[in-house]
């Protein structure tokens, strides 16, 4: 089975990491079953976040008896030191452990550093000193913050979106992490549902031996698919290359990459999914996006304030409010 060394942490994780965001949506019993099945079939790395409701609790329930056999990363979206400590204590309790392997700042809008007024990085250092965390990580969707985190040399790992739809600038981040011996954890390796061929996604990422992808897993058949790659890793074939070129062409132009650089939105619109709903409906199982929850999310587009904050932050220069409107119109035809 393929493994990845996470940079200077020295941690060896399975090439398939388990992204535990989707297990929020299933029962505790089913989640524990999936997590344990993953572990007993070779997955040793599980990534979650304080923000993923009961995901941490489910991991705690599944693994408290074999804590030292697995590697856990979780995240805090704290804005100051007080919130940091509250989150950390809660995560330790939920995960039924007294240490977290990689504790990550969850998509902060800036790169926390020692002595800054947020006090966040100093709190991380103190938590490390106390043995409550082993390594310091950061997750981000913003190129600028990611680059700053790498050059600061303050972080052991970076979690960043990376898939075969990524451009040269994403590959630059991946390579910079390698040069700086920083672990690279790839989120959204299926581009949030736009990539439907997981074998091609896996084979593409296999070319980068220091990259550890985490796959969001909710169903047993999804888990089985990734487990099958442990024994028979998909090879990057010419056909896959053609398919990737085709996807890159199809998903070019006015297409939202789901990066989230434009967020948060003052009207609470989940722009990174809603602005590409037409693609999600056509490229992924559409029923997943027609639920009551999603209908409510899409309806928020009606409340767009046309402040254009999103447009000014989009690195792809998309007319985001217009794109949201188009996607909403199209969405209604599916209902
Ligand atoms: S223009 Fe609309 S979608 Fe964009 S940030 Fe403002 S309210 Fe949100
Ligand atoms: S609108 Fe632009 S910035 Fe926002 S999620 Fe889509 S691609 Fe990213």
From TrEMBL:
Instruction: Name the Pfam families for this protein.
Output: Aldo_ket_red, Fer4_17
Q: Which Gene3D superfamilies match?
A: NADP-dependent oxidoreductase domain
Keyword annotations for this protein, in alphabetical order, are: Iron, Iron-sulfur, Metal-binding
An example of a GO molecular function for this protein is: oxidoreductase activity
Q: Where is the NADP-dependent oxidoreductase domain?
A: 20-202
Q: Do you know which SUPFAM superfamilies this protein is assigned to?
A: alpha-helical ferredoxin, NAD(P)-linked oxidoreductase
Q: Which PANTHER family match?
A: D-THREO-ALDOSE 1-DEHYDROGENASE, NADP-DEPENDENT OXIDOREDUCTASE DOMAIN-CONTAINING PROTEIN
Query: Would you tell me the protein name for this molecule?
Result: Aldo/keto reductase
């Amino acid at each position: 089975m393929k493994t990845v060394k996470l940079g200077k942490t020295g941690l060896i994780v399975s090439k398939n990491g388990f992204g535990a965001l989707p297990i929020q949506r299933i029962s505790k019993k089913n989640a524990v079953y999936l997590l344990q099945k993953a572990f007993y079939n070779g997955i040793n790395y599980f990534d979650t976040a304080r923000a993923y409701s009961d995901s941490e609790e489910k991991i705690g329930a599944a693994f408290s008896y074999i804590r030292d056999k697995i590697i856990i990363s979780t995240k805090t979206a704290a804005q100051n030191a007080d919130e940091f400590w509250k989150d950390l204590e809660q995560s330790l309790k939920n995960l039924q452990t007294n240490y977290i392997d990689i504790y990550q700042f969850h998509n902060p809008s800036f790169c926390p550093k020692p002595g800054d007024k947020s006090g966040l990085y100093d709190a991380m250092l103190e938590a490390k000193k106390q043995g409550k965390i082993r390594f310091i990580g950061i997750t981000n969707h913003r190129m600028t913050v990611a680059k700053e985190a790498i050059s600061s040399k303050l972080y052991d790992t970076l979690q960043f979106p990376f898939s075969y739809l990524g451009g040269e600038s994403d590959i630059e981040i991946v390579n910079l992490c390698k040069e700086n011996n920083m672990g690279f954890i790839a989120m959204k390796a299926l581009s949030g549902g736009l990539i439907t061929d997981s074998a091609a996604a896996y084979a593409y990422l296999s070319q980068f031996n220091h990259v550890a992808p985490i796959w969001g897993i909710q169903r047993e058949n999804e888990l089985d698919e990734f487990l099958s790659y442990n024994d028979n890793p998909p090879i990057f074939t010419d056909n896959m290359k053609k398919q990737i070129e085709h996807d890159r062409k199809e998903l070019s132009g006015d297409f939202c990459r789901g990066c989230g650089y434009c967020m948060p939105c003052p009207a609470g619109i989940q722009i990174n999914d809603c602005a590409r709903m037409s693609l999600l409906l056509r490229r992924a199982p559409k029923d997943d996006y027609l639920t009551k929850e999603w209908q409510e999310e899409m309806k928020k587009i009606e409340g767009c304030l046309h402040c254009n904050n999103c447009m000014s932050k989009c690195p792809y220069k998309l007319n985001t409010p217009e794109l949201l409107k188009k996607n909403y119109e199209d969405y209604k035809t599916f209902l």
